[in-house]
Design goal:
2 copies of one chain form a homodimer. The longest helix of chain A is centred in the last third of the chain and has 25 residues. Chain A starts with a helix and ends with a strand. Chain A contains 15 helices and 23 strands. Chain A is α+β, with helices and mostly antiparallel strands and 490 residues long. Strand 5 of chain A pairs antiparallel with strand 5 of chain B, so a sheet runs across the interface.
Chain lengths: 490, 490
């Protein structure tokens, strides 16, 4: 029992020090480690395995909607960044620059891609000639670099892994449709696979991507009440098409600039996963992305027949398509319970001589901390059912928590108090940037997304509270233009 | 018919100008394009799709042998490279260096990884404490950068995609076993999936990896008779363990340095694929890695019922697990035939009104340029059989060609004449570096692998000709120490 206590104590208090809890969890569960260069992280096998599941599932959704993967170069000529005015302003301060290569100083410095709009724009200009070449629907899985002073594994690192989709279309409508389709795919993925309920909607001018006409975001509430931007989808209009001269000969015989979109999501989603579901004991992983779904812990494993029964059970579950491991190390069962609870494995199965004699097993649900007794017969069907159950329960629980923490505010004080107490805020906004900036500087809350009052598109989130609650701007008191979701954010 | 001729003519003559043929094929089939920075390439969807198949199959083989994937940082402190003497000498001339980041000059320049032994060594030193932590069996899929003056897509580019495995073991035997196991996996992968017969064996001191105790290579004969090193596996002994102080407490209570290995293969394999199987019409892709295995070309597609029959056939084949597409563009059938032959799709199916009336289809095998008539009933079974057939036939054909082009040489002149005529050479070698260097400077041929005369290990290739044929060093005429495979190489 003392060992169990040690485990719990090793992780900082989730209520009192959430940031430290997060760091303890990601390091102690061996998801990541710090790299030797400041700002970098190593994704260890357990962490990378989550990313692999994310990639697999998400990639299927991309392919099903007609996208193809490709790979563009890491290095971008420094001059490319300058071609789109807002883009360079947004990214120039955080790029890493290669000035030497092959033992010589380079004539033109190279930028390590912070994102690939520019280099892909250059290639599209070359590849696109006619309307027959459109649309181009390409996605890339890659590493990108954005220099950071601080390091927060998964949340803020100089290099991170992501996917970035880049599409080109003949018309505005089609490009916008694509932008919103991808927003919907992100929402679906986060909710169905990561069990994270999200708000989706348009970003304000202040919060949009550097170079975009419009940015749409996916925002999730973390357990500390802060919001984590989990994916974004951008509509560029003809901004990049004009900057890189991406033209096509249309069916009407005229040369036109294309309309482009881009959309991205990254290993940040693993951060979202941890901060949505984790608890004092450590990680809680949704079954669909858990590297190990079931851990079998033998009880009195030296007794005759135990390890044999464990092996049989393991192969039974494995053959049913369940990701299962058995922990046959020399550690005590209590130590193993803690270890695997900390690592967030959704289900534990305990199997000892008494269970074998009674043809039963004891299951332990990581999410509800509940024990369940099951017959060994057809255990694989029950386990599958339970895993589906856990997946749903995690989503439901996160949704309930979020619903209880969205507050309507009509004054700046109400807004500040609400976010300071770990809430999201629904508030009216006049649409002026100065009000948005004042709110940010007074309360540290930013506009996360504009809520959709008029059901413009099914993919946008509507205000959780009746819109009658917000008639004026929370900052200046003038008539509101939008209902906005405000929150402190990662 | 004129269009067909245009197609053929667009690709340089494979016999007269093999390098230009290669470049024409990779660009015209849209496998790749040149990136804006000299030395870089873009992998377009058709090329990247081959890489994805390679990754999938190879990754399964890695996982089946107990390896886990992880991800290490792109940037390595410049000082790390200096820790292993031979390693820095090998890589320093070709690294790209980041000197500026976040708008400031960096205190210590950062190297963009040319390979990750050093940064992984640093992490392993931290992660490994006890013999219980061993072995560590990690693989990484990543991009690496080695600065190049010339650009040859897939063969020589400043940035390329690869996998690099890095393992640490308690004993020399285990580390060597791992090194050779991975050599065997590469051989199996190249032969079974890429249909490329290979020679495997130890490299000479001159040709080994910078920092290794021993390097083992996988060499394939291209259609021009040159050899392409398609994968390598390195045994490091304790070189990196000592450089990075990777120690463990062994069961006997003593602190010891670990033994490490690394092994890698890259997008170069796609180059090998093209130059092993391609012909004057373009690519020939082995079915196991072909992005499209079957292309259906409708004949008289505007006639009633044709596109419906095409759709039915496509879904029948798709449901049987075959990667199938139908080309319903407005191009003529002749144009389509050429296009898909150039793109190397293993099987073409022609389907028109007459075929539909007769309940049959015409198949065309890309490898043998043969037409086959088949009943539409149970066509999916026949197609599957044919795809397996093509996979084998490609391997057999490459093997036959190679067998006819391995020559025994006992003098430098014989060796030079043989490699100049596009052959591999089996020759005796005294073991002296000076002879190896002289051979290289006189004939441009290098020692590809040392052949295994004594069946040391089943994974090594034995000499194709009787070893009695080589008793002396092909260079100095002294008694031979080894029988070596010499060839010009990419």
């Amino acid at each position: 029992m003392q060992e169990e206590k040690q485990f719990v104590n090793a992780i900082a208090d989730i209520e009192k020090n959430f940031p430290q809890w997060f760091t303890d969890v990601v390091i102690k569960t061996k998801l990541v480690d710090y790299g030797p260069v400041k700002g970098t992280m190593v994704m260890r096998p357990y962490g990378y395995a989550i990313w692999e599941r994310i990639q697999q599932h998400m990639n299927k959704m991309f392919v099903a909607t007609g996208h193809q993967n490709a790979y563009f170069p890491l290095f971008i000529p420094a001059s490319f960044l300058n071609k789109e005015k807002e883009h360079v302003e947004g990214f120039a301060p955080e790029v890493a620059v290669v000035t030497m290569a092959g033992g010589e100083k380079l004539a033109e410095p190279l930028i390590v891609r912070p994102t690939s709009e520019t280099v892909i724009g250059e290639m599209y200009a070359k590849w696109i000639q006619s309307y027959r070449d459109l649309p181009i629907l390409i996605n890339q899985w890659a590493n990108v670099v954005r220099w950071e002073k601080t390091t927060r594994p998964f949340l803020r690192t100089s290099e991170f892994l992501w996917q970035e989709g880049h599409t080109a279309h003949a018309t505005e409508e089609e490009a916008m449709q694509e932008t919103l389709q991808m927003l919907g795919i992100y929402k679906k993925f986060l909710e169905e696979y990561l069990a994270i309920p999200v708000f989706t909607g348009q970003k304000t001018e202040k919060e949009k991507f550097a170079g975009a006409v419009a940015t749409f975001g996916v925002e999730a509430m973390m357990k500390d009440g802060k919001s984590l931007q989990s994916a974004t989808s951008h509509y560029f209009g003809q901004n990049f098409a004009k900057a890189f001269d991406i033209q096509f000969l249309d069916a009407d015989g005229k040369h036109k600039h294309v309309y482009t979109s881009s959309w991205g999501s990254s290993t940040r989603m693993i951060g979202a996963l941890i901060m949505t579901h984790g608890d004092q004991r450590g990680l809680i992983l949704p079954p669909k992305v858990a590297p190990i779904q079931v851990i079998i812990v033998p009880i009195m494993q030296k007794k005759q027949g135990v390890l044999e029964a464990v092996a049989n059970l393991k192969s039974k579950l494995h053959n049913a398509g369940i990701r299962v491991e058995a922990d046959q190390t020399e550690n005590t069962p209590g130590w193993k319970f803690n270890e695997w609870e900390m690592k967030g494995v959704p289900l534990r199965i305990e199997l000892g001589p008494r269970d074998i004699a009674q043809n039963k097993v004891i299951l332990f649900r990581r999410d509800k901390l509940e024990k369940i007794e099951l017959s060994l017969d057809s255990v694989e069907e029950k386990v599958k059912e339970l895993l589906e159950n856990i997946q749903c329960a995690l989503y439901e629980s996160a949704l309930m928590r979020r619903q209880n923490r969205i507050v309507v505010a009509n004054t700046e004080k109400e807004l500040k108090d609400a976010v300071d107490n770990g809430n999201f805020v629904q508030a009216g906004w006049c649409g002026d940037r100065s009000c948005e900036e004042q709110i940010k500087s007074n309360s540290a809350a930013s506009a996360r997304v504009i809520l959709d009052e008029t059901n413009k598109n099914v993919v946008f989130s509507t205000p959780p509270h009746p819109i009658e609650a917000n008639t004026v701007c929370v900052c200046c008191g003038k008539k509101k233009k939008h209902v906005v979701l405000f929150a402190k954010a990662y």
